[in-house]
Amino acid sequence: MIGRRESDDPAPSPLRFRRVLLKISGEALVDRDGGIISAAILDRIAQDVRRVACDLGVQIGLVIGGGNIWRGRAAAERGMEEAQAHYAGMIATIINGLALQDALERAGVDTRLQTAIEVRQVAEPYIRRRAIRHLEKGRVVLFAGGTGNPYVSTDTAGALRGIEIGADVLLMAKNSVDGVYDDDPRRNPNARRFEALSYIQAINLGLRVMDGTALTLCMENRLPIIVFDLDAPGALERIVRGEKIGTVVDGGST
Questions:
Q1: What is the C-alpha separation between 115 and 143, in angstroms, rounded?
Q2: Structural domains of the chain, count
Q3: CA–CA separation, 218 vs 136, rounded Å?
Q4: For 195-237, what is each residue's pLDDT tens digit?
Q5: Helix, strand, or coil here: 23?
Q6: Boundaries of domain holding 107
Q7: Short-list 217, 167, 218, 210, CA closest to 61
Q8: Looking at residue 1, what is its pLDDT?
Q9: Do 172 and 226 contact (CB within 8 A), yes or no?
Q10: How far apart are the first and last CA of the chain?
Q11: Which DSSP symbol is given to 167?
């Protein structure tokens, strides 16, 4: 039997992105049976990240929200002092960060958890140069605690950390929504999905890509955004390989 030559093997797909910032909402972790954190969802995310980080060598920074546990704005509307409510939300992101870190480590991914609010017993304080060094060593770095400041969303934390670490792209993982629409597709079956938008178009149309501060940060620092469905099979790998998935928001709506 004649064996295949190495040259007969299909060439691996080139990587479009080498360093990414992945933003995951806290709501994406909610168990469909009502639990605030689903072990199955954590494990699925961990496997997707392992494939991209360990097998493909993509450097991944990860920001996770805390809305499955606590929403600062909602607590403030119920009468809680607003800054205090936002700090509680930052703590919620650290809880999610610990849970996701555990899932990643069990999947064989080397990680570091850094927080903008110091909790030295369980995480490193956020230091930009140290975070970049971890990425260069192949570790997935989880950024928790938001920016460490009240009145600032985790969307803005994702944009800020993406800019600080020099990410090629900000990946906004949505829960069962495969991009940016002109209306809520879960309520309006005729809602139209955009394949691409410019930053200015997203702002002028009032589209809920992310909060306005985060979008402006990305625009000013030319950090492209891809909004995609976290539940889509293999979506993270397909994106870093250059496949067009979801909605691209950048400087030219290409």
A1: 6
A2: 1
A3: 23
A4: 999 999 999 988 888 889 999 999 999 999 999 998 899 999 9
A5: strand
A6: 15-250
A7: 167
A8: 34
A9: yes
A10: 49
A11: -
- Rounded Cα distance between 97 and 203, Å, is 30
Q: Quote the percentage of the chain above a pLDDT of 90.
A: 76
Position 14 scores a pLDDT of 85
pTM equals: 0.91
Residue 253 identity: S
Residues 6+ apart with CB under 8 A from 72: 82, 85, 86, 87, 88, 89, 150
What confidence score (pLDDT) does residue 75 get? 84
| Inside any domain, residue 9 | no
- The whole-number pLDDT of residue 6 equals 42
Mean pLDDT across 158-172: 98
7 belongs to a structural domain: no
Q: Can you list the positions of beta strands (E) in 5-115?
A: 19-24, 59-64, 111-115
Q: What is the mean pLDDT of residues 142-164?
A: 96
> Is 2 a domain residue?
no
CATH of the domain at 147: 3.40.1160.10
Q: Which residues contact 21 (CB under 8 A, 6 or more apart)?
A: 60, 61, 62, 63, 158, 161, 162, 165, 167, 169, 170, 171
Stated length of the chain: 254
